[in-house]
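Figure 3 (text version): structure tokens given as input.
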């Protein structure tokens, strides 16, 4: 059984609803349990600013699926929710599911790099992750709490339901 942290992001077609739907689909992945989810956070787009603000969250899964089998499941959910794989990397999207951490594994495959390549500089990943994993140590040995200390919030704010 592995503990896997997944980043969720959306800035199209009712982003909060997109994340709610994604949570339902993630909890239905075979051999996988959705353990907990962070609050939903709103933030300005990193990269091109001429697009809507994003809604982001991080979830913790417990799974016996191997990394590429889990990736297949998350990509299926993205497509189900209307993500066109052809869109540009920095443009708006209905749903992004990124495998941030997979236990203590370091994975470097053409389709999957874990820890996620950009997570250390993304406030919209680090703050929700800290909310559900305050004592996390990354495979590199770095403390998540230290990374958050040096990551500006850039206006990131929790959506109060
Ligand atoms: C376009 C890019 C880089 N910017 C983002 N910016 C924010 N705030 N949140 C995201 O999830 C996000 N995802 C992306 O892929």
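Below: residues designed for each position.
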């Amino acid at each position: 059984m592995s503990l896997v942290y997944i980043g969720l992001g959306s800035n199209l077609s009712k982003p909060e609803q997109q994340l709610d739907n994604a949570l339902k689909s993630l909890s239905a992945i075979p051999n996988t349990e959705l353990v907990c989810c962070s609050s939903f956070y709103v933030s300005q787009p990193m990269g091109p600013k001429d697009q809507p603000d994003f809604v982001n969250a991080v979830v913790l899964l417990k799974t016996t699926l191997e990394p590429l089998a889990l990736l297949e499941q998350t990509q299926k959910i993205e497509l189900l929710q209307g993500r066109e794989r052809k869109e540009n990397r920095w443009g708006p999207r209905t749903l992004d599911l990124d495998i941030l951490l997979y236990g203590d594994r370091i994975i470097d495959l053409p389709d999957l790099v874990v820890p996620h390549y950009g997570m250390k500089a993304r406030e919209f990943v680090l703050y929700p992750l800290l909310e559900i994993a305050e004592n996390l140590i990354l495979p590199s040995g770095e403390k998540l709490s230290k990374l958050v200390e040096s990551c500006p919030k850039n206006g990131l704010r929790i959506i109060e339901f």
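The chain is about 25% helix and 25% strand.
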